[in-house]
Amino acid sequence: MSLEFRHIAHVYGQVRALEDVSFTAPAGEITCLLGASGCGKSTLLALAAGMLRLQQGSILLGGDVLADAGSSPPPEARPVGLVFQDGALFPHMTIAANIAFGLPKARHGEVESWLAQVGLAGLGTRYPHELSGGQQQRAALARAMAPGPRVLLMDEPFASVDIVLRRKLRRDCRIILRERGATTVLVTHDPAEALDIADRIAVMEAGRIVQFASPQELHDAPASAAVGAMFGGAQVVAARRGEGGFVTAFGLWPVDCALGPLPDATDLDLLVHADALDLAPDPQGLRVRDCHAQGKGVRVVLVAPDGTEITAETEKPVNAGQRYRAMPQAGSVRVFARR
Ligand SMILES: Nc1ncnc2c1ncn2[C@@H]1O[C@H](COP(=O)(O)OP(=O)(O)OP(=O)(O)O)[C@@H](O)[C@H]1O
Fold first, then answer.
1. Which CATH number fits domain 3-225: 3.40.50.2300, 3.40.50.300, 3.30.565.60, 3.90.1640.30?
2. Of 124, 185, 212, 259, which shows the fewest CB atoms inside 10 Å?
3. Which PANTHER family does the annotation name (predicted)?
């Protein structure tokens, strides 16, 4: 069952948290709301959950109105499951009792199979404080999913778990959610997490959706330089269209470094991947500020005379005492009109 947001706007007093947000989380898929702190992700989720009343717009579940400005059913009247950052298990109940909580008595026999599904077989008699953070989150996931909600809303569900376990947990979680066919909306501020778990990503900026696309589409065709820079080592370089190329703080870059059509604008943002920059010694070039071997390659931070920095990735360490020219490879730079 799809979850559709239509023209949602929300204010807290003078603060405009959401402005004309419209998108559809497709049935059975995982949709991530991704954006910096304060962009409105949690507000959107709280509106869907019924923890906030809708002020403007409507939310539809499977094509039927779930809530609008005239009617906003409370959370318990909505067919949605909720998972929050801290898991929020009931501390005085065992894990099994937590999972059984939302189930009718006749279905309590299903608890064991839920424990097994989330990798907690044999731990049902423990209390939440007797589990690790990751185990608690998995129990919270099982508790939210056991009643079979048509929609699952998750706000930073892996935030309290360490980075190694987090990766495993979200991959397990993706498999369980996809197998169950739950329509999921998950809030995160971490682009890597969104890429790892989502079928679709709604990228938010200051209360608006700036792009709604699959991870592949975001990688191949970001809507702006800022969106592109969120994913995978790319950086934004300010430039001006000039005679023979792009005038940047790092020198003149030839037009053939551009990928795809050029926008009809003078002020530009260039999206450049660190590993697409070639460095060549140049006494008039950029100063090396840092050179850090990371195992796979070497990260080199260079500084232009005006203090602007750029990062390159090279195979071998550079000479920190030398100056270098940084030149993007042909066809490696996406060019956007500056907004
Ligand atoms: N109860 C509130 N009263 C006033 N302003 C609020 C309230 N809740 C949120 N805001 C403001 O609304 C905007 C959106 O907040 P929201 O919590 O939805 O963002 P977010 O993207 O989820 O942020 P974070 O990642 O930090 O949780 C922010 O400017 C925030 O300061």
1. 3.40.50.300
2. 259
3. SPERMIDINE/PUTRESCINE IMPORT ATP-BINDING PROTEIN POTA, SPERMIDINE_PUTRESCINE IMPORT ATP-BINDING PROTEIN POTA
Angstrom CA distances, 76 to 43, 56, 152, 169, 180, stand at: 18, 22, 13, 27, 21
Write down the domain spans for the chain.
3-225, 233-337
Residue 12 Cβ inside 6 Å of ligand 1? The answer reads yes
Q: What's the token pair of residue 301?
A: 């931070």
Q: What is the pLDDT of residues 205-241, one digit of tens each?
A: 999 999 999 999 998 889 999 999 988 668 999 999 9
90 CB within 6 A, ligand 1: no
Dihedral Cα 72, 18, 44, 32, nearest 10 deg: 150
Please give the pLDDT value at position 159.
80
10 lines ligand 1 (CB under 6 A): no
pTM recorded for the entire structure: 0.87
Beta carbon of 17 within 6 Å of any ligand 1 atom: yes
The H or E element that residue 65 is part of is strand 64-68
Regions of the chain where pLDDT drops below 50: none
Q: What ipTM, to 2 d.p.?
A: 0.96
Q: Which atom of ligand 1 has the smallest separation from the CA of 42?
A: 22
